[in-house]
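2024-03-11 09:14:02 DEBUG pipeline.ingest accepted 1 chain
2024-03-11 09:14:02 DEBUG pipeline.ingest length=99
2024-03-11 09:14:03 DEBUG pipeline.predict start
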Amino acid sequence: MMHAPFTLASYIAVNYIAVKLWNKLEFRNEEVALQRTLSAINILKEKCEEEGITDQEYEHLEFLLKDRWVHNNHIESIWRQKSRQIWRKLGDRNNRFFT
């Protein structure tokens, strides 16, 4: 009997690696991106207070403010998911009653 060259175990392993890489690329840099956005916002706000900004810089500032909101929501979502995982893993005092 011949074995299939691509078994279910190897398929799962390949997908596990792909998901880990995607997760690392997509979500690990969220806090770094937020810090970059905040520093760019501070630079534009300081420039606005000192000498004023052009319409193009104002539009860029609005974009950065929206981007900050998106980054904050992503980070909060990640923390909410992590806390939910911890709660499910550790449970609470009422778990025995409901199971």
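2024-03-11 09:14:41 DEBUG pipeline.report Helices lie at 8-27, 30-50, 55-90, 95-98.
2024-03-11 09:14:41 DEBUG pipeline.predict end
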